[in-house]
Amino acid sequence: MNENIYKVLIRCFTYNQSDFILDALNGFIMQKTKFPYLIAIVDDASTDGEQNVIQNYISENFNLNYSKDEEYAKITCAQHKDNLNCFIIFFALKFNHYKNKIGFKRVEYLKEWIEKSEYMAFCEGDDYWTDELKLQTQVEFLDAHREYMACFHNATIKWEGQNRPDEMMCDFKTGDFSTAKIFEKWQLPLASLLIRKEVDSSDSYKKLIAEFRGGFCHFIAASLIGKVYGFSNCWSVYRKNAGGISNSMSYGLCSFLNVRYAIASGDRDALEVMLKRIHFASIFVAYIKGDIYAKKLLSLVRKDRLFLLIKEFIQFVLVWLPKMVIKKLFRFIDRVLNRNLLLFLCIIIGLFGFNQLFPSVLKSYYEKTFTPLNVSDEVAFESLLRNNVYDVIDRESWSKHPLAGTGSLIKRLRSKVPVWEYGEYGLLLHYAFSYAKNKNDAALLALIKQKFDNALENEFRVKRSDQIAYGNVALDLFDMYHDDKYRTFATEISQMVKEAVQRDGLFLYREGSKEQHVDAIGLTVPFLVNYSKVFNDSVIYQVAYDMVNDYVKFGVDYLTGIPAQTYDLTTHVKLNHANWGRGISWFLLGTQEVELQNENEKKTFTNIRQCIAFKPKAFV
């Protein structure tokens, strides 16, 4: 066994994991590889019988090569009976190295075996591997890509002893990981990591491990000296329990370690990532309470980002501290007064304030906003409508509702919104174009073309699903003027849709969402259908068909024919309100473009459309 050269050394340090170590061992021996690999287990003098569990497992499943008794440990070497590529060396330490503050010795015991290997994999005694091709897949990748120093994969979190379902540890896509991106994800599963042994001997790793302990140093060091690749597949399990170290650390200690790691790595982008993740209000509160790690963290930030610390402190004093004081005051009042009495007083005060304030505000707003239409016949009404549409199209921005808005105070006070920001303007241009074309209204057609051409010259591009309605305008102009710039604009949108479908399986109103919105039907389907007709693109029509078909199936109440605002993509449960007038309009705008293929679906869809459009009493 001493003469063997192992492709991979699996490093497993364990202590008092007798309940879980068999899962780890089974995960090791089930690996199907084209190369020899060595399982190196170091038990740090467990007191729960774990060493006997491991020794018995080796006796039952391995052919013994040799064993020897050293001053510090009993060492056993063996080869698996069936998996001839699988070898094991077991160090049963005679005294606990961690408690005696010589934990680094455990790594030195493996030095001889590390030198005989090309790669190192890791797995703690309470974690385990679930995929038999994990090692083979990772080794093949690193063999084929010499510029990569490490690769890892996702893991499933198993909440041991808790009534809580398993969950995915991280949310990321397969691809490269920079140092900053590793810090952004932060808790990556150690049992997923495979590194070249050069990482372990690099100056970057030695610098980090001298200051810290933990497998995260390998992730960082690998990213500093080469490239790192992450597979999104979950090929291992990470056990977590309420008493674990990661769950027992204070917020101040976690943040302190994060920033220390980032500074030690020397990667400025990584430091920025860590600083953005700190909730400084909590750190300031912890500092006031005497948390030593909060104090250390603030000292670190003061040295490296003094201006940031000043800004966060000002925000804490002016925003967070008053909010906390008010919250404490309400809790005090809640304890002193009867809860029901307090609720009753709040309702009375609220009703009084609404009756006194809001009627006058709303009356003033609507009097300034809306003007009664004084028209005598259809011709006068059409003329008035056309002039108003012309005026709205000609504007560069729209007035914003004074009480609307989200985000900062500055954003809420802003009274104007660029017309190109939302897809409703695209719908207005599209249907105004159809009207102008039917009426031979040259002035209105010229205005629409001028506005759209100006937008293209200013490099306007569709970035969100609710802006896809602008694609209809491009198709209108292409049909009339045959200018390739309109074709290019529309084709870019279709490509964006196809790429999003490949990622999510269905084109969604918000990419990556777990829900589908009825807005997507009205704002995107008309363009998809029109594009498919103009350029004979059956793929893009199928996207539109799937969107409408799914919403008819899962998003519509068949008793009333009313579409819900959203539905859950997994459970198909309808969500949010269904009495939304604009949502019903979105549904009608999109569904009228698609011909459903199944006869039952056609009948259902026809009834729904008739119910919504022509039978409002059915809603009662």
TrEMBL record:
Gene Ontology MF terms: hydrolase activity; transferase activity
Keywords: Hydrolase, Membrane, Transferase, Transmembrane, Transmembrane helix
Gene3D superfamilies: 1.50.10.10, Spore Coat Polysaccharide Biosynthesis Protein SpsA, Chain A
GO-annotated biological processes: carbohydrate metabolic process
Entries under InterPro entries matching the protein: 6-hairpin_glycosidase_sf, 6hp_glycosidase-like_sf, Glyco_hydro_88, Nucleotide-diphossugar_trans, PolySaccharide_Degr_Enz
Record-annotated membrane-spanning stretches: 341-358
PANTHER family linked: UNSATURATED RHAMNOGALACTURONAN HYDROLASE (EUROFUNG)
Protein name from the UniProt record: Glycosyltransferase domain protein
